[in-house]
Amino acid sequence: MAKKISVHSKKREELINITSEVKTFINEAGISNGTIAVFIPHTTAAVTINENADPDVKHDLILALNRISPDLPAFKHTEGNSDAHTKSSLIGCSLNVIVNNGDLILGTWQSIYFCEFDGPRHRTVIFQAN
Amino acid sequence: MAKKISVHSKKREELINITSEVKTFINEAGISNGTIAVFIPHTTAAVTINENADPDVKHDLILALNRISPDLPAFKHTEGNSDAHTKSSLIGCSLNVIVNNGDLILGTWQSIYFCEFDGPRHRTVIFQAN
Amino acid sequence: MAKKISVHSKKREELINITSEVKTFINEAGISNGTIAVFIPHTTAAVTINENADPDVKHDLILALNRISPDLPAFKHTEGNSDAHTKSSLIGCSLNVIVNNGDLILGTWQSIYFCEFDGPRHRTVIFQAN
Question: Reduced to 3 states, what is the DSSP secondary structure of residue A88?
Fold first, then answer.
C-alpha cells in the first residue's frame, strides 16, 4: 500500500531532505530487494536527488533553476507561478530508488530532496513499492 | 504485458492529456496496488505531469521550454530539431505513477501529458506494470 | 538483486551508450516482462534516452545543456561544478525502461546514455528489476 507523508515548506523555493522518510518507509514496508517510487502529487513542486554534503549546492541549484525558468512577461496563467510549473516538469514529480538487502542504495553524496517551487505550503509526498 | 497506444499530434509543440488512457490500462490489467511505467519510444517527445485546470499552464510550459531550449546556430544535427531532442531529455521519456486500491493516484490538479516537441506526428506511448 | 557496472568517462561532458549493458542485465536476471530501474549514484552525472543514429545529436545535447546550465558567478559551492549538479537534477539520475518477452523495449532511434557532466571520472551505474 502507498504511504503519504507531509512536508511543510517555509520559503518560495526550498529543497527539503526526505531521505530518512524514504528509509522509514522501506523498513515499515519490509522491502528487501526492489525499487521504491517517490511521487509528488503537486504541479509546482518536484523530487530530485543531489548533494547532501555542502549546503551551498542547494543554494546554487535554486539559483540556477530561477535563471533557467524565470517569470516571463508572456506567461498567460494569472496565478503568477508558471515558472514553478515549468520547474516542476523540468525536475519531475516521480523518482525511482533502489533497495538492496533492505538498504536504500544511494551514492556517498546523494540525498533525496522534495523541491518546493511555490511555497511556503503544506505538501504531500507519496511512497509505493514498485 | 506492455500495452501500446497511439497519439496523434497536430502542432510542432503540443501537450496531449493521456490520463484517461493510463486509467484504462490500469483497469484492463487489473492492477490493485503498485506502480505503472509510462514510456515514450521517441527522441523528440516526452511525458510529464502538470496542471489540468487552466489551459494557460500548457501554453506557458511550451513557451518556457522554447525559451530554455531554442534552436541554436551551433547545432550540427542537420534535421533542425536538436531543440526538440534537448527538450525530450530535459522532460524525460519515462514516468512512474502510483496505483492504490485500483485507482491512479494523482494530485487534484495533476494530469499526465504526452509532450510533442517535433510534430505533427503519429506517436506511440507504452504502459507497463512495474 | 541489484547489479553495478563501471563506466569510465574521458571528457568533462560526455554521453556514453549503456544500452548493451542494460540488455545484458535483462538476460542475466532472466526478466521476461516488467520494468528495469537504471540508477546513477552520483550528483554530477545522470541518465537519459536519446538518439543513437546521428552522433551530432550527442554534440548538440551537450552544447544545449552547457548553454542552459552554465557556470554562474553567483554560485557559492567552491568546487566549481554547480553547473554539473544542476544538469544532474535537470536530466535525472533515475530511469525506468520496459521489458517485454525478454526484450528491452526502445524506439527505433533510442539508446540509453550515461551522462557525464564533471569528468573525466570512474563512475558506477546500478540496475535493478522493479
Answer: helix
Sign of the alpha-carbon torsion through B64, B66, B69, B72: negative
A95–B50 C-beta distance less than 8 A? no
Tens of pLDDT, residue by residue over A60-91, are: 999 999 999 999 999 999 999 999 999 999 99
Residues B62, A86: contact at Cβ < 8 Å?
no
Put simply, whether A89 touches C (Cβ < 8 Å) is no
- B90 to chain A, any CB pair closer than 8 A? The answer is yes
Cβ-Cβ contacts under 8 Å, B35 against chain A: 37, 128-130
- B26 phi, psi to nearest 5 deg: -60, -45
Is ipTM beyond 0.95?
A: yes
The per-residue pLDDT string of chain C (130 residues; one tens digit each, 9 = 90 and over) reads 899 999 999 999 999 999 999 999 999 999 999 999 999 999 999 999 999 999 999 999 999 999 999 999 999 999 999 999 999 999 999 999 999 999 999 999 999 999 999 999 999 999 999 9
| Strand intervals (E) in chain C | 3-8, 14-17, 34-39, 45-51, 94-100, 103-105, 110-116, 122-129
| Correct CATH for A2-129 of 2.60.120.460, 3.20.20.70, 3.40.50.20, 3.40.50.720 | 2.60.120.460
- pLDDT 10s digits, B76-89: 999 999 999 999 99
Residues of chain A with pLDDT under 70: none
- Domain positions in chain B: 2-129
- Considering only residues 18 to 57 of chain C, which have any Cβ-Cβ distance to chain B shorter than 8 Å? 33-35, 48-51, 54, 56-57
- Could you say which DSSP state residue A82 is in? H
Which residues of chain B lie closer than 8 angstroms to A1, CB-CB?
Answer: 33, 100
Three-state DSSP state, A9: coil
The answer to whether A35 contacts C128, with C-beta atoms less than 8 Å apart, is yes
Supply the pTM of this predicted model. 0.98
Q: How far apart are CA B91 and CA B49, in angstroms?
A: 10
